[in-house]
Amino acid sequence: MTIITTAATPLITVVIPAYNAEKTLLETLQSVSNQSYGKLEIIVVDDGSRDGTFALASDYSLTDRRVRVLRQANGGVARARNHGIGEARGAYVAPIDADDVWHPEKIERQLQSLQKFPGGHGVAYNWYAAIDEDGVIFGHSRPVLHEGNIFEPLLRENFIGNGSTPLMPRAEVLGCGGYDAGLRDSGAEGCEDLKLYLALAERLPFALVPDFLTGYRFTRGNMSSNAYRMLKSHALVMAPIIERYPHLRRDIETAKFNTTHWYFNKALANRDYLQIKKLAPMMMQCGPQLIVHGLRQSFRLAKRHGLRIARQILRKPSARSKTHFAGAAVPEAGTRFSDRFMPFGRRAQPDIVADGRQ
Asked: Which of 74, 92, 119, 184 is deepest in the core (most CB within 10 A)?
């Protein structure tokens, strides 16, 4: 990719909310500094950390003058992001959590994807690779191809899937009210990202970069430990949407069921009996739908098993063995995200200040 440095290109503000993130923040900052698009303003918001997060970020700002470090009393990730966005000078904002990482061409390719819209007025997203505590890939997002008006597909499935992926026009984010910090105050933190994405999707078209450009980190136990809170958050986010769009109620209820089912399966796999106890009544409320879903799943599994046997007999390669999708290399489980995508050790635009000058 060609490194973009001309004054005509927009300033992008990267916002990194960080709470007790000293173990992962350096890797996150390096992945941002290594972006091929150099005209960045990088804002780290220390959300009342009690470890060395603030000192680490401050030290890093001495090596990359694009980095600014802000502090606030602990108020949650939504308030930290809003604080950074409020201080931002960029035309676009790109949030990334302090334990996630980016492909070095993520911002550049997202900006290019927005050129299809007049004035670049839209939101860009991409797929992600799921990484563990050591940065090793163990899965990836379903590679959907939704573009343009993605409001209804996003209601059915949060295919963006995390807070470290989108590139968004700052003015529109502010116009939507930013991230809803009130969800945390209600004990329902978790769907602030989805709520903002849905609000933006009612206003703007979305562009897809069909590649796995975000490394989204799952730490031990977090896939099911906050399931009940996440589902409560989802219900609060969806309630006003059902009021505005009653014809979409069934789609939203299906999305709720699918989310509950996913968390329930994860709790079972992790033998998280406390979460199973909390989620079981919610699953029972979806009884008839669960039976239908279970029958469909059983049919799909039986069909898949039959196809595998047939392929073995006929010696045909499995479609699952594909290494590319829509031209993008599919992340391989067991490999490190950094080894595949991010050649650390060099910085694309060293010591660039926020206005893009050397």
From this structure: 92
Going from the C-alpha of 265 to that of each of 130, 258, 314, the distances in angstroms are 18, 11, 34
233 and 189 Cβ atoms separated by less than 8 Å: yes
CATH for 12-220+326-341 is 3.90.550.10
Residue 252 in contact with residue 299, Cβ under 8 Å? no
Residue listed under structure tokens 């992001």:
81
CB 87 within 8 A of CB 43: yes
Residues facing residue 171 across a β-bridge: none
End-to-end Cα, the chain, rounded Å: 20
Kind of pairing, strands 123-131 and 206-217? parallel
Is residue 74 left, alpha or beta, with left meaning phi > 0 and alpha meaning psi from -120 to 50?
beta
List of residues 6+ apart from 342 with CB closer than 8 A: 30, 31, 34, 101, 102, 103, 104
- Residue whose C-alpha is closest to residue 97's, from 78, 110, 125, 75: 78
What is the residue type of 105? E
Q: What is the pLDDT of residues 286-332, one digit of tens each?
A: 656 544 544 454 455 456 556 655 655 565 544 444 788 888 989 99
Report how far residue 328's alpha carbon sits from residue 129's, in angstroms, rounded to the nearest whole number: 12
Give per-residue pLDDT as tens, 181-234.
999 998 888 899 999 999 999 999 999 999 999 999 987 545 445 777 888 899
> How much is the CA Rg of the chain, to the nearest whole Å?
21
Distances (CA, A) of 203 to 148, 149, 155, 196, 326: 11, 9, 15, 11, 27
Output the pTM of the full model.
0.84
Q: At what angle do helices 249-269 and 227-244 cross, to 10 degrees?
A: 170
In the chain, domain spans: 12-220+326-341
Neighbours of 210 (CB within 10 A): 17
Q: Which of 264, 294, 258 is nearest to 278 (CA)?
A: 264
The residue among 308, 249, 319, 256 whose CA lies nearest residue 286 is 256
